[in-house]
Design goal:
The complex is a heterotrimer of chains A (657), B (254) and C (216). By secondary structure, chain B is an alpha+beta fold. Chain B has helices at 38-51, 123-130, 152-162, 169-173, 180-191, 200-214, 224-228, 236-251; strands at residues 6-14, 23-32, 74-75, 78-79, 101-105, 114-116, 119-120. Chain B contains eight helices and seven strands, in the order ββαβββββααααααα. Classes of the chains: A alpha+beta (657), B alpha+beta (254), C mainly alpha (216). Chains in contact: A-B, B-C.
Chain lengths: 657, 254, 216
């Protein structure tokens, strides 16, 4: 049933062979073909500019006031690429292998290999666009290592890599807007896709300023709308990040892949109170130099500076000597949760661990003192020099921490705790990034494809840009070549009228509930259910309860929601209601998926399935597949399995010890 | 950490839509913890308004990490509020005291018309970028990333300029509503890099022309923009832009 | 603005230098000078054709600077139709950098008075000539004009306006013309500050000196 369209041939030749044989569209025909892109993040903006350059007529939609604000901008740490500039043994194969292994063998080999192959081109492309990556004194690009790898393959621009990459893609996008190849629709939210004869042919959007519903036609539709971490209410996602585009597509026939695979990022600033609206990530790059610890004594109320070295438990270094503080995210997150649950947490909430820079400051300080020939430098000088180095490397992150917490991370260890960060799951796509709906594509975090059950650091930016710059421009041709005879369909077509009516009916229904609770309060309730029962650790009983609670919540939502204001105006509450209604349904599917997957892998940790040492216990015999869900109606889904074949990277138990 | 809470009086600009007349409305908020961000304080107020059945205050915000550039409130006379190098979303209530009155206004500039309440239309910035704020390189045209070494000081300066988040605080703070800091950051970012050299002249001429067309004022170097910029973009970039503009104006072939 | 501004700054140097000749009358120099050195210098300035042409240029420069200035101020003010309830004020910039239009207007008023006092009579009405010489006694004119305390105060106020106008205008002009090297900006700022203090101070000393009869 599911055809992933993986090309024949050996792993390393698949993509080349594919490119050599894929159908092409001649330039004069491209001008007649229209493409709709939802989302203007790394995937959306890079796809829009690349497809615009090729000559397609592109329309891009984003809900923000400018495409430059998409949440890709918040990615901090860096972007991986198999350049091997550091001569430390990196290669396309090694990046591929690390990614498959890091994803706990739940990703498709062919996709991941392609990702590793094009990774080097991404860096070239971005540098050509003027992305100011960090450089060495010789003028060449600098690299750093990142969680879960042993080579330095991460390119970065201080702690603002996502911003710089997005601005690069955004500028290319705006160039295409200026050239007339791309039309940009800001403050527009996609509320449904339009299918004609089984193919995606357009979208219904709501103009968020006027509230009007608008119809747009496209020969193909690309969803680049990002992840759905906001199901958890508190996450590192932006406030507006939502699942509506992919959820509408799902309800119109696009299967959802691995919905329960959620990444909990280990280094975030802990929750400070009930008012918390979102969580802030502290880049994983901090784990390169920082050391994570908790007191050895339970419920130790002393200040960190009062706890002597021998009474500190550097639990990651203790449990995983080979990787230490650089273990993959899922492992680091669970370890932090384990310590806090066991009563060793720190801070007021006791739900935090320390990330300590004291030893890094000293180490760098000594290095600097050596460089400046300061023999017998005193401790203060060393600290001062060390702080300068740390400031240069992580200054903006430290500043951010200080602003949010009011504490000085240069002198006091930072308090961190895991938070929802990324969703590996998403719409199921084949090798060409097409969903199960013909002509409907899904790129970037919104799709399920490349990260398996856990994403490695600095790989999200890589995937978004790979999909947009180097994959979709080729694979979309294979579909478009057969569309050259399809004239643009009028948006008066009955399918458009009907889709618009559905959307309009739903909006009216939401507005007419006139209940007593705000959207925000429902979202918070959903978040609590998800975090407690479908978060870092999951079990059968909890998931079953969660499913019931979510169904109950859905009923309550549709009977007691209150939205002030009107429809035909800027109405943030209505925007949120549309999104939260979808989050509730998606939350249910996530729990169903988590319940069905009776194994622990990557970010999905079932308490019933663990080794004696508390590590995740995978079950390759029964679950070596992509769980792909077909929407069958309210609360009903049908599971399809896409078997994963590992011909090259043979599954082993992940060990970072 | 202390756990006192605050009661505050807010005077907030309310305006139903672009064509409506706006006015200040006074609100009281209680139980504000110093650990809240400024926007979380607004969330509390909005939740209260929704529960009372009135319309919440519209304001732009998204990442709440100080990087997307959405948030745009003029707080007690200063864009992004009292903290230096901070966006509204990163401003925390520690900055205020019990009993304070806080005046919150939208960005004011004719080039940034008010859309609703505190939301303004900043699409003029996108159009300035469209006029030339890019390097024309199609996907796939790039040479190896290390083929062109770039002097570290230049790369660092380009990065410092590229840190601009396009929030518009510079325009909001400038007595002339000038967008020169925003534009100069882009011009400096791209002209400092060898990749940006081929389009140097047309870029600066076209972007300046677009800025004038959008209705921004001119720069008179009062430096208010630099003082309020959450990313500490330097006015030196404006000098650089001026130099680029002069050279381009004198040497361009048309 | 910057080009004309810098041009006018260069004029100020000449103007201040020449006028400073009056101080040759100070006891420390030559008590019997009685403005002779100044009068001779002023005569030179009034008799050479080259200078006459430059004078036209100067007036053109002043007028251009004024017209540009008003146009710029008007344009910039029109860019914000709805103002703020609470303004940023001095938290982001110096008051004089925001008040160039106001300072410039004050200077314009001062200039009208100043031209009426000296340039017009010297150029058109013909001042009485210095005994036995064929040039005007502009020095005597200064002695006469600066008898009035009101005039002296107005002149001093004019000089203060000039000082603040220069304090911003001097360095701003260089940056408008593209000066971006940090070291040179610091240099120009230092130079500008010194210039803005010294030149108006020298000018302001003149009416004061006449009034208190240190010279004349």
């Amino acid at each position: 049933m599911l055809n992933s369209k993986i090309p024949q041939g050996s792993l390393e030749n698949k993509w080349n062979d594919y490119k050599g044989h894929v159908k092409l569209v001649n330039p004069s025909n491209k001008r007649k073909l229209e493409i709709i892109i939802i989302g203007s993040g790394l995937a959306g903006a890079s796809a829009a500019s690349s497809l615009g350059e090729l000559g397609y007529k592109v329309k891009v939609f984003c809900f923000q006031d400018s495409p430059r604000r998409a949440h890709s901008i918040a990615a901090q740490g860096g972007i991986n690429a198999a350049k091997n500039y550091q001569n430390d043994g990196d290669s396309v194969f090694r990046l591929f292998y690390d990614t498959v292994k890091g994803g706990d063998y739940r990703a498709r080999e062919a996709n991941v290999y392609r990702l590793a192959e094009v990774s080097a081109n991404i860096i070239d492309q971005c540098v050509a666009q003027g992305v100011p990556f960090a450089r060495e004194y010789g003028g060449l690009l600098s690299n750093r290592s990142f969680g879960g790898t042993q080579v330095q393959r991460t390119f970065y621009a201080a702690g603002q890599t996502g911003q710089q990459l997005l601005i690069g893609a955004y500028q290319s996008l705006e160039r295409q807007v200026a050239l007339g190849n791309v039309t940009m629709y800001s403050r527009h939210e996609m509320l449904d896709i339009v299918k004609i004869d089984g193919k995606a042919r357009g979208v219904i959007c709501r103009n968020l300023i006027t509230g009007q519903l608008e119809r747009y036609f496209g020969h193909a539709v690309l969803l680049c709308s990002g992840g759905y971490g906001n199901v958890f209410y508190l996450s590192t996602n932006a406030m507006g990040s939502n699942a509506t585009a992919i959820w509408k597509a799902h309800k119109k026939g696009a299967y959802f892949g691995n919905p329960c695979f959620t990444q909990i990022h280990p280094t975030c600033i802990p929750v400070s109170g009930d008012h918390q609206s979102k969580l802030t990530l502290m880049s994983e790059s901090l784990r390169n130099d920082g050391r994570i610890w908790v007191p050895k004594k339970k419920d130790d109320k002393r200040r960190p500076s009062e706890i002597p070295e021998e009474e500190r438990d550097y639990y990651l270094e203790r449990r995983y000597p080979a990787f230490g503080n650089l273990v993959p995210r899922d492992v680091a997150s669970r370890a932090a949760k384990e310590r806090c649950d066991a009563g060793y947490g720190v801070g007021n909430s006791r739900m935090a661990v320390y990330l300590d820079y004291a030893s890094a400051i000293e180490r760098y300080g000594r290095g600097e003192a050596g460089k400046h020939h300061l023999e017998n430098a005193d401790a203060d000088t060393i600290t001062k020099l060390g702080k300068e180095v740390v400031k240069e490397k992580y200054g903006n992150l430290f500043d951010m921490y200080a602003k949010i917490t009011g504490e000085d991370p240069y002198t006091t260890p930072m308090r961190i705790y895991p938070a929802v960060h990324y969703t590996m799951g998403g719409l199921w796509v084949d090798y060409e990034l097409m969903t199960t709906v013909e002509g409907l594509y899904c790129l970037g975090e919104a799709n399920f494809s490349d990260h398996g059950a856990n994403r490695l650091g600095a790989s999200a930016l890589m995937q978004g840009l790979a999909d947009g710059y180097f994959v979709i421009p080729y694979t979309i041709g294979n579909y478009m070549a057969d569309e050259i005879r399809t004239a643009a369909i009028s948006t008066d077509h009955p399918a458009f009228v009907e889709a618009e009516k559905e959307v309009s009916d739903r909006i009216n229904a939401l507005m007419n509930i006139k209940g007593s609770q705000s959207v925000e309060s429902f979202h918070k309730q959903l978040g609590k259910i998800m975090w407690n029962k479908c978060g870092m650790a999951r079990n059968e009983q909890g998931l079953k309860e969660a499913i019931e609670e979510i169904r109950q919540l859905k009923k309550e939502f549709w009977s007691d929601l209150r939205i002030p204001g009107g429809i035909n105006e800027l109405n943030n509450e209505l925007d949120k209601a549309n999104r939260v209604a979808d989050f509730i349904e998606l939350g249910e599917l996530m729990c169903i998926d988590a319940l069905h997957r009776r194994e622990s892998c990557g970010g999905h940790f079932r308490e019933e399935m663990q080794t004696e040492e508390g590590e995740a216990l995978r079950d390759d015999e029964h679950f070596k597949y992509v769980a792909t869900w077909e929407y069958k109606g309210d609360h009903e889904w049908k599971l399809h399995e896409e078997d994963l074949n590992f011909e090259v990277a043979k599954p082993t138990q992940r060990s970072y010890k | 950490m202390d756990h006192h809470t605050m009661s505050l009086t807010l005077q907030v600009w309310r305006q139903q839509n672009a064509n409506a007349r706006g006015k200040f409305v006074t609100y009281k908020v209680d139980d504000i913890s110093p650990e809240m961000s400024f926007l979380e304080m607004f969330d509390v107020l909005n939740e209260k308004l929704v529960n009372e059945g009135s319309e919440p205050i519209a304001f732009d915000h998204d990442c709440r990490e100080g990087i997307c550039g959405s948030c745009s409130m003029h707080i007690n006379g200063r864009p992004h509020g009292p903290w230096a190098a901070t966006t509204v979303c990163q401003l925390h209530m520690r900055a205020f005291h019990d009993g304070d009155t806080i005046v919150v206004e939208p960005w004011r500039a004719n080039a940034f018309p008010v859309v609703k309440d505190l939301v303004v239309d900043r699409s003029a910035f996108d159009r300035i970028i469209q006029a030339g704020g890019y390097i024309s390189v199609n996907t796939g045209n790039a040479v190896d990333a290390n083929a062109t070494p770039i002097e570290k000081t230049h790369a660092d300066a380009a990065f410092a300029a590229a840190a601009c988040i396009g929030c518009g605080a510079c325009v909001a703070a400038c007595k002339n509503s000038s967008a020169m800091l925003f534009m100069s950051a882009k011009v400096a970012h791209l002209s400092l890099l060898p990749q940006g050299a081929p389009e140097r002249k047309s870029r600066v001429l076209d972007m300046v022309a677009q800025m004038d067309k959008e209705g921004f004022g001119s720069c008179t170097f009062t430096e208010a923009c630099e003082a309020v910029c959450p990313k500490e973009i330097s006015v030196t970039n404006i000098s650089r832009l001026n130099a680029e503009y002069l050279v381009a104006g004198l040497t361009v072939d048309k | 603005m910057a080009f004309t501004g810098l041009f006018l700054i260069s004029f100020l140097v000449v103007h201040a230098g020449l006028n400073a000749c009056i101080f040759n009358d100070l006891p420390v120099f030559d008590e019997n000078d009685n403005g002779d050195m100044f009068n001779r210098a002023a005569h030179f300035m009034g008799s050479s054709y080259v200078i006459r042409i430059m004078e036209i240029g100067l007036f053109a420069g002043i007028i251009l600077h004024i017209v540009q200035g008003f146009a710029l101020e008007a344009k910039n003010r029109s860019r914000r139709s709805v103002g703020y309830k609470v303004n940023l004020g001095n938290r982001g910039s110096k008051w004089y950098s925001r008040s160039m239009g106001l300072l410039g207007t004050l200077l314009l008023l001062f200039l009208i008075m100043h031209v009426a006092h000296f340039w017009v009579p010297s150029r058109f009405n013909g001042l009485e000539e210095v005994e036995g010489k064929n040039y005007h006694n502009l020095f005597q004119r200064m002695v006469d004009v600066f008898q009035s305390p009101l005039v002296v105060i107005l002149y001093v106020l004019g000089c203060i306006s000039l000082a603040y106008h220069l304090l911003h205008g001097f360095q701003s002009a260089f940056r408008t013309l593209g000066l971006q090297n940090k070291r040179y900006i610091v240099l120009v700022q230092g130079l500008g500050t010194a210039f803005s203090i010294v030149v108006p101070f020298v000018f302001a000393l003149m009416p004061i000196a006449f009034y208190f009869k240190w010279i004349g």
